[in-house]
Amino acid sequence: MLTMDNIVRDGHPSLRKVAEEVPLPASDEDKATLERMLEYVKNSQNPEVAEKYGLRPGIGLAAPQIDVEKRMIAVHVHDEKGNLYSYGLFNPRIISHSVERAYLTAGEGCLSVDEPYPGYVPRYARITVKGVSLDGEEVKLRLKGLPAIVFQHEIDHLNGVMFYDHINKEDPFAEIDNAIPVDR
Ligand SMILES: CC(C)(C)[C@H](NC(=O)Nc1cc(F)cc(F)c1)C(=O)N(CC(=O)NO)CC1CCCC1
Ligand SMILES: [Zn+2]
Which cofactor does it need (predicted)? Predict the structure, then answer.
């Protein structure tokens, strides 16, 4: 199983590279990697397991964070209505998005970043994501709220983009125009 020891930290070159498309149908190795990523995110949200293995509770993980430069992400997050979004996706891509933006009022962090970078991270408020699931099915997701933010954060990792790249350097908490605040 994956632990925090497998997660590379800020400064590691993998986090600044553009990850490669995964050849489909996925190889057994790529499937095993994506399954381990999804298992990490689930395990990390289980208090007993997280405590036992020192896992930082995560709601998403991208393959470059475990030093695998391939376009794979795992997300396990509930939206504000309590609906669960649990996906391992190969080659996820945003095929459309709202003009309106959104941001987490608490700001963002990252499993690969140990120090805080305070500030609002502007994201699209609504996105449509396409990708291929672990069982080889084409998946099309229409997302808003926290799930939309997580998918954008993870897809950024596939393009070597870190959340703090988006923060206003002059005024980290400057109001973002045409944006809705998303509370934790
Ligand atoms: C880095 C960490 C703080 C652990 C972050 N968790 C998180 O934001 N939890 C959370 C947020 C809420 F809004 C409501 C709630 F119930 C729990 C996280 O897992 N990630 C995943 C990551 O680093 N992926 O690469 C960072 C998040 C920042 C915005 C989306 C993902
Ligand atoms: Zn991250």
Answer: Fe(2+)
